[in-house]
Specification:
alpha/beta; Oxidized Rhodanese, domain 1; 4 helices; 30% helix; 17% strand
Length: 101
C-alpha cells in the first residue's frame, strides 16, 4: 500500500485539519503542531478518536512512526496522510507550536 504524504508547509495552509501526533506523551508534551491530538503509535490500531469523515494527517518526530501509523489507518479505511519530516520539520520551518496540554 502506498502512503500518501504532505509537507509541513502544505499542512500549515489547511483550514482546521485533523492532525494526530503518534509520538509518546512525553514527546508530545514538549511541543506539537497546533491542534494535534496525541494518540501514541501503540494505540493507533484500536483508537476510536479519529473522525472517519475527514482526512487525517499523521505526524511524529521525523516521519517514521507516522508512516507506519498512516499504513495502519489506511488499512482501516481512513483517508490518512503522512506528514513528511514530522515535528522536526515543522519546527525547522519556523511554524508555530503548542506546549502539551
Amino acid at each position: 500500500m502506498s502512503v500518501k504524504n504532505i509537507s509541513v508547509q502544505q499542512l500549515a495552509t489547511l483550514d482546521a485539519p485533523q492532525v494526530i501526533d503518534v509520538r509518546e506523551p512525553f514527546e508530545y508534551q514538549t511541543s506539537h503542531a497546533p491542534g494535534a491530538v496525541n494518540i501514541p503509535l501503540g494505540e493507533i490500531a484500536a483508537t476510536t478518536a479519529i473522525r472517519p469523515d475527514r482526512p487525517v494527517h499523521v505526524i511524529c518526530q521525523s516521519g517514521g512512526r507516522s508512516a507506519r501509523a498512516t499504513e495502519v489507518l489506511q488499512a482501516r479505511g481512513f483517508d490518512a496522510i503522512n506528514v513528511d519530516g514530522g515535528t522536526s520539520a515543522w519546527i525547522g520551518a519556523g511554524l508555530p507550536t503548542e506546549p502539551g496540554r
